[in-house]
Structures are given as C-alpha cells and as structure tokens.
Please model this.
Amino acid sequence: MSRINTNIQSLIAQRVLGSNNTQLSQSLERLATGTKISRGKDDPAGLIASEALSSEIRSTNAAIANADRADQVVNIAEGGLQEVSSLLTELQGLITSTASRAGLSDEEKQANQLQVDSILQTIDRIASATSFQGIKLLNGNFDFRVSGLASGVADYRINGAKFGGSSLNINAIVTQSAQQGGLFMSFGGANLDLSSQNASFTVEVRGSLGARELTFSSGTTMSSIAAAINTFKDVTGVEARSSGTGVKLYSSNYGSSAFTSVKVVNDGGAAGNGVYRLADTNFNASQTTGNTAFTAATNGVQDFGQDIKATINGIQATTSGRTARINTDFLDVELTLGTSTSQTLGAVGSGGVTATVTGGGADFQLAGKVDIAGKVSMGIGDVAVRKLGSSNSGFLSTLANGNTNNVVNGNLTNAQKVVSEAITQVSSLRGRLGAFQKNTIGATIRSLNVSVENSTAAQSVIRDSDFASETAALTRSQILVAASTNVLGLANQTPQSVLQLLG
Model:
C-alpha cells in the first residue's frame, strides 16, 4: 500500500478494538452486577419474562405473608374459643350437680346459680375482648350479613361465602319432605277396652333415645295413655297424642335416624284394629292397609323417619332431618327448615330466594393474583350467650338468674340441651378454624413456597450471570482488546513506509 490519506487497516483495527472493548465492558458489567440483563437492549424478550416473574415472586411472597398473618389471627380466635369451651364444660357439670335436688339446700342452688351467671358473663367478656390489632374476632364482627331470610327457615349458619358482586342469593328447593317416624295404635274407642276388668295391656315404646315398658288397665282413656307415654319422651325420643279412637306415636326428631317402635308385650284381649303405620304422604293419616293386630305385634312394629332432600343453588345438599347443607369453595351454608316448610316440596322463600348474603365474613387473600379464586372467606359467628344455642332448644342466656332455664327453679333438662347445643356449636367452629389452619393455610404456605422457589429459579436462568462463562468471556475479551491494540499500533505505523519512496 502506498496511500497515506486513508488507512484501511487502521480503520479495521479500530472497529475490531471498539467491538472488543464493548464485549469487555459487557463482561465486566455482568460480573460486577451479577445479572446478564441490566437494560432492555441486553435481551428484550428476557427482560419482559424476568420482570413478569419478579412481579409474580413479589405477589407470592406477599400471599405467604398473608397466610402467616391469617394463621396468627386464627390462633388468637382459637385461644378465646378454647376458654369458652372449657367454661361450657364446667357449666354442664353445674347443671348436673344442681339437678340432684335431694340433700341440696337452697343456698347451694343459689351459689351454683351465681357460678352460672359468672360463667355467662365471662363468655360474653371473652366474645367481646378477643381481638387482633383491635379487630374483634368473636363478637360477630366476621359473621356474614344476611337479608330477606325466608320465614320458613328456623335456623341457618353461613360458614363461608365468596361472591364478586354486592350480594349472593341463596336458593333452596325442597325435593323430598322431612318426616318423623310414626305409628297409630287403634283401640276402636275413647277408652281402652280389654277382655276383662282384671286384664292389662302392656306395651314397649322404643325410640332413638331408649325404651320404656308401660302397662294400662281396662277403661284407661286415650289421653291418659298418651300422657303416660309423654312422661318418658326425654328417655325414649317418642311422643304421643290421643287421636279419636286411638293414640298416635311419633318420634320427637325428624330424619332417617329417628324412629318409633311399638311392641305389644301383653295385648290383654284389647279391642281395636292394632297398629298402623302412618301414610307416607300424610303424617296425619294412617295407612288404610297393612295394619298389625295387637296379637301379632309381639315382635314389634317400627317406622323410621325420613331426611329432607334439597338443592341449594343447584347443588344437591347433604341432609339430616330438617337440615340441609352444601360446602363448596364459593358457598358453605347450613339451613334448618321449619316443620311446614320442610314438608312442602318446592322453592323456599318468596321468588325462590331463601336468603341474600350482603357482606361480612373474614376474607383472606391467599394467592398472588387478587381475584375471587385466590380469596378464602369464612364466617366466625358471635359466641355471646345470646347467640349460642338454637331457636328450638333456646339460647344460653336463658340459664341466667330469673330466666326459664336457671338452675334454681328452671327447666334443667332443657338447660342441659341448650348447653350441649352450645358446646357443639363452639366445637364445630373450632373444628372449622382448625381445618382452615391445617389444610388451607398449611397447604397454601407450602405450595406458595414451592412456587416462589420455581419462579426464582426460572428468573435466575433468564437474568442472572453465569460466572463461569462470563469469566471465560472476560479473559477472551481482555486478550482480544490487547491484541487489537497491538494491531492498531502496527496499522498506524504502516503508512510510514512511504517515506522510503521519498529517498
């Protein structure tokens, strides 16, 4: 080459040196920052994927923190409920000890009532005091709000409800009526007519609670027979009432576990048509055929009740007696229908709407994505004494001094039923909270931790520097820069050779 104005070799060396310097700078930057994507131009697609994963990781970590917080909230609620449960157990013992009237002075009964009142006050205090950061947990603050409850609903409990709008309708439809187990003993007259004045009619009445054997003499009225059977209804679970020329017996409870059984031990030559089962479609009427004569009823005649069948929001409900329940991810509700409603096929409530959930509940966001699927909503009911119990047996507040179920002069049998119902309710709530902690929260935390691990690993592959390859690239770039610098020096010296031509 004999030109000096344009040094092509130098330009090439400069270009290569610049490229090598860029690669060297890139390697130094990746080693210094630990990432191979610092800006969009490094890897546009990789940057998009990495930022999306970063967002998911941050949201998932927040969901894990939410789950941990939910676990602590439930722990505090469980602590209060555990104490309430202990107090209810002590209350049950006080009722039993006071029921032994013989040898128990009025002063002792009054002292027991003072303890009952103290327990009731303490339960109310726990219900109003159990809180997390000032948020009350057991005073109904996290119970669901319901409007438009159908008159045919005797009791209800909403354990969980998730809905995207402002409200959620509950639509219950009865597809099979609830029934009691029932029999009719037909004696053919208003009084018991036996073969002789000295004869006796002995019958064993059995129900789901137990059995009693009763003996009646000739001339006993139907109302007297019914009254005698009712004396033991708390023992047998069978009630009775006189009905024209006979006595109707029926289980106190509804459902397939309730039954009425009559076994004639000694018929005494009783007049009448014997024992009838009641009509399947009309509990107030006897079946016209299939009666069992008293002489043939020595092995017993038995009739079982029938559970209600229903759908709630289109889902087949699990039923027992007059109670129907569904438990799905979006709705966990239990309805106990009144007697008439449970025996009337069709929709429950005006316009087919049984009730409307308008809000409430304890919401926990347990997923990174904020939507209805990532939310868990559960109801924590009020455990105050005015709420524990049921409309059927009564509420815990009826055990207070001067009320119907107080232990001094109240109905202790019913008082024990109320306390038993309250114990069941508190235990059920504790069980739901425990299942929420163990299964929902525990499984959520474990799965979210795995998700964070996998997402972080995926992000690392996309964004983090591989130090082994980057140090190798650094060494290569350093050598190439040094070589390019030397070559550029040589290229810049090449035009000097033209001076030899000038001699």
Notes: The CA atoms of residues 7 and 494 lie 8 Å apart. The chain has a mean pLDDT of 88.
